[in-house]
Write a structure and sequence with these properties.
The chain has helices spanning 19-30, 43-57, 72-86, 119-147, 159-162, 170-187, 215-218, 228-234, 258-265; strands at residues 10-14, 34-39, 62-66, 91-94, 150-155, 193-199, 246-248. By secondary structure, it is of the alpha/beta class. Strands 3-2-1-4-5-6-7 form a 7-stranded parallel sheet, sandwiched between helices. The longest helix has 29 residues, at 119-147. The chain is globular.
């Protein structure tokens, strides 16, 4: 399959220092986009990612910044820095998130019932996974609307995981993000800005998987790069009429033309028949 070109486009990927965020950042930069990546705390990690990609491409394509998506001022700063450094902003990938390992390191084998979850941990996960995408989109979308072109891509997960016993508050937080995606897409109809969800389609080998998972289990996990081709398609001009839907990366067949691969991977029609522009 021919890779979509994103020459001249500028993206923000929150939580771009590891796992899925790292893979998506590399994919966007290789496709020609300039990318601002962020981390709330481990800034050495995102700086290393930026340095490595810039060295590979022989150009300054990636800028790493410290920013906490739960802080509105940090979100505005990310947008301002993207525009000041690269001259615009076209793509927002809401990837930063907190998972179940913050509730318990043994969440895969010993589910924590919702009333046993520490209240501060609950608030932290919801703040990052629900409020963070809202604050980032609130900062980015007005610029996209003014230029009448934009892509907001929210990283989500399987519906079954949203309902899984012992997965509070991670499951509820992603269910809320799903609702945000659908509602924001309707709010933005006719503006040229689309909003879609993208999910790996299964357990993925990222930092959200706790240490100590048996190697046999880890080998069965999806690789983060599964996200790259569907992400590039969603961010491209080819997906201009797709909004308010979700795309399952595990169902993307790289041997097919992009339009056919996307048709197989889209999980619901959303407002795809109502062009966003």
């Amino acid at each position: 399959m021919k890779t979509a070109t994103l020459e001249g486009k500028v993206a923000i990927v929150t939580g771009g220092g590891r796992g899925i965020g790292h893979a998506m950042t590399l994919g966007l930069a290789r496709a020609g986009a300039s990318v601002v990546i962020s981390a709330a705390r481990q800034t050495d990690e995102v700086r290393t990612v930026a340095d490595d990609i810039n060295a590979e491409l022989g150009a300054r394509r990636v800028l790493a910044l410290q920013a906490d998506v739960t802080r509105e001022a940090d979100c505005r700063r990310l947008v301002d820095e993207a525009i000041a450094t690269f001259g615009g902003l076209h793509i927002l990938v809401n990837n930063a998130g907190r998972g179940m390992k913050y509730v318990s390191p043994t969440f895969l084998t010993e589910p924590t019932r919702f009333w046993e979850v520490d209240s501060d941990t609950w608030r932290t996960i919801v703040d990052t996974n629900v409020n963070g995408p809202f604050l980032m989109a609130k900062a980015a979308v007005p610029h996209m609307v003014r230029q009448r072109w934009g892509r907001v891509i929210n990283i989500t997960m399987n519906h079954d995981t949203m309902r899984r016993a012992g997965f509070s508050p991670y499951g509820p937080s992603k269910a809320a993000l799903e609702s945000e995606t659908v509602i924001w897409a309707q709010d933005l109809l006719g503006t040229g800005v689309t909003v879609n969800g993208l999910l790996p389609g299964g357990a993925t080998d990222t930092g959200m998987i706790p240490d100590g998972v048996p190697e046999a289990v880890r080998r069965q996990l999806l690789r983060p790069k599964v996200m790259v081709e569907p992400l590039l398609w969603l961010a491209s001009e080819a997906a201009a009429g797709i909004t308010g839907t979700r795309l399952n990366a595990a169902h993307w067949d790289s041997t097919l033309p992009a339009e056919r691969a996307a048709a197989a991977a889209l999980e619901n029609a959303g407002w795809s028949n109502q062009a966003a522009h």
